[in-house]
Design the sequence.
């Protein structure tokens, strides 16, 4: 039995976390979800440091959904560090945020975000956005082998 690769949801707002998990369920997205509630937790999970030291990092997330406005380390710094590490450099990272700041959009793409999506306030619109994220990133997209090296 093959296990689905997890989705790493980096989100500090419990309401947005619950909303995202509900949208996954409504869209029948069955990948396990790992939640990091700040940027430091996200980096520790991805790089296998801190409380995740010694954990099996052979299976990287299928997708990272990254908020920008996070405590301890903001999402742009998380993205910078993800792209700087050879084991995580090619992970698909979708910025999912309420930020409408042009500077955040430009900086996210400059740092290597694969996509930038503004969180809709309307739940039905959010369900549709998550459906499209799932369809593309979890079904249609051809992933790397999860170690930062494309699988050929």
Sequence:
């Amino acid at each position: 039995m093959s296990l689905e690769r997890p989705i790493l949801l980096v989100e500090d707002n419990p309401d947005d976390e619950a909303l995202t998990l509900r949208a996954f369920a409504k869209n029948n997205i069955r990948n396990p979800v790992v939640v990091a509630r700040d940027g430091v937790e996200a980096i520790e999970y991805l790089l296998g440091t801190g409380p995740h030291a010694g954990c099996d990092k052979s299976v990287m997330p299928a997708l990272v959904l990254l908020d920008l406005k996070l405590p301890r380390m903001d999402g742009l710094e998380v993205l910078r560090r993800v792209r700087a590490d050879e084991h995580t450099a090619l992970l698909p990272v979708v910025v999912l945020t309420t930020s409408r700041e042009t500077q955040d959009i430009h900086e996210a793409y400059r740092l290597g975000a694969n996509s930038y999506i503004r969180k809709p306030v309307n739940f039905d619109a959010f369900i549709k956005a998550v459906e499209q994220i799932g369809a593309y990133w979890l079904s249609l997209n051809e992933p790397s082998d999860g170690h930062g090296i494309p699988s050929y």
